[in-house]
TrEMBL record:
Location of the Prephenate/arogenate dehydrogenase domain: 6-295
The keyword Oxidoreductase appears for this protein: yes
InterPro entries in the cross-refs: 6-PGluconate_DH-like_C_sf, NAD(P)-bd_dom_sf, PDH_C, PDH_N, Preph/Arog_dehydrog, Prephen_DH
Name of the protein in its database record: Prephenate/arogenate dehydrogenase family protein
NCBIfam families on file: PRK07502.1 (NF005694)
Domain of life where this protein originates: Bacteria
Source organism per UniProt: Roseovarius pelagicus
């Protein structure tokens, strides 16, 4: 692939920006990659490991002359960063972001984008529980989805170029409306994270009673919960505070179902439990069969679904 953007600026140098830099280098997509992070320590690490071609000490200096600027900071920091870079953006440039929530990010960023600059929000559905400048790797986006969320009146060429960038970094892309994105992600990512955080908290409370047993004998299912619950606290605080309505809607439904299952256990209603688990098993099997038919990429790393 030839160079897509002569100069790319990455703001916030953590897991996603680091992986983007390495994936762009792998495919030769950027003439130059410039980086900026708020803390001097992160900038120092990024320089030391050669994460970008150049690291600047202010966000405005990093975006000056850039053809593509990608905001890779926690969702709650998007507004302040956009305000800082707005006046320094080059006419004709594209600003994108990788935030896990889309409606709130659009509302936070769009007012700071000057006339003549394109704003094309995006969200790669790929991550790990690790964060910071040393956590990125070039393969993170391979065979994963990246959702592109164009705002009303978005320039089609600019949208297509961002789609090409993600495809060349290894992802499959789809377009989605911001509100729909936030509801879908509340089901598939946000509520599951909150449930994992809760379950690990419950186990921790129990652990105080039973010593180290909870960890020592933890089965694979619980270990998966602990992996998810080790994710970055700032990132997830911001996700929940910025996708309130959709997350609360899904958690409300979750609680209703949980109460129904709780009641079935208490009253010994085995038929209810069996029917419920049969239905959920069929859903999982249906997903796997559909994927084999369409050869679509899976939700998990590699071929694990
Ligand atoms: N981790 C995931 O699984 C994942 C997946 C997809 C999208 N996202 C989204 O990507 C974004 C970045 O996540 P990450 O996992 O790379 O996080 P990270 O914690 O690894 O990196 C975030 C970086 O932003 C910097 N930062 C924080 N506030 C800043 C500010 N005000 N100005 C400048 N820099 C600032 C931090 O120092 C850090 O370098 C978030 O919006 C997150 O919702 C994360
Ligand atoms: O695999 C993980 O660790 C993730 O949690 C990644 C995950 C997800 O829920 O799938 C987390 C947040 C993102 O916005 C996108 C992807």
């Amino acid at each position: 692939m030839s160079v897509l953007y002569d100069r790319v600026a990455l703001i916030g140098l953590g897991l996603i920006a680091g992986s983007m830099s390495l994936a762009m280098k792998r495919a030769g997509l950027a003439g130059e990659i410039v980086g900026y992070a708020r803390s001097a320590e992160t900038r120092e690490v990024a320089r030391e490991i050669g994460l970008c071609d150049r690291i600047e000490d202010t966000a405005a200096d990093a975006v000056r002359g850039a053809d593509l600027v990608v905001l890779c900071v926690p969702v709650g920091a998007m507004n302040a960063v956009a305000a800082e870079i707005g006046p320094a953006l080059k006419s004709g440039a594209t600003v994108s972001d990788v935030g896990s929530v889309k409606r709130a990010v659009i509302e936070a960023v769009a007012p700071h984008i000057p006339e003549g600059v394109h704003f094309i929000p995006a969200h790669p559905l790929a991550g790990t529980e690790h964060s910071g400048p040393r956590s990125g790797f070039a393969e993170l986006f391979d065979e994963r989805w990246c959702l592109i969320v164009p705002v009303d009146g978005a320039d089609e060429d600019a949208v297509e170029r961002v789609e090409t960038l993600w495809r060349e970094m290894g992802s499959n892309t789809d377009r989605m409306d911001a509100d729909h994105h936030d509801l879908v992600l509340a089901v598939t990512s946000h509520a599951p994270h909150l449930i994992a955080y809760t379950m690990v908290g419950v186990a921790d409370d129990l652990g105080r009673v039973t010593g180290s047993e909870v960890i020592k004998y933890s089965a694979a299912g619980f270990r998966d919960f602990t992996r998810i619950a080790a994710s970055d606290p700032t990132m997830w605080r911001d996700v929940f505070l910025n996708n309130k309505d959709a997350t609360l809607e899904i958690l409300g439904r979750f609680t209703e179902e949980l109460f129904a299952l709780q009641r079935a256990i208490r009253t010994g209603d085995g038929e209810h439990l069996h029917d419920y688990f049969t239905r959920t098993r069929a859903i999982r099997r249906g997903i796997i069969e559909a994927r084999q038919d369409t050869d679509a990429p899976d939700f998990g790393r590699g071929k694990r679904v």
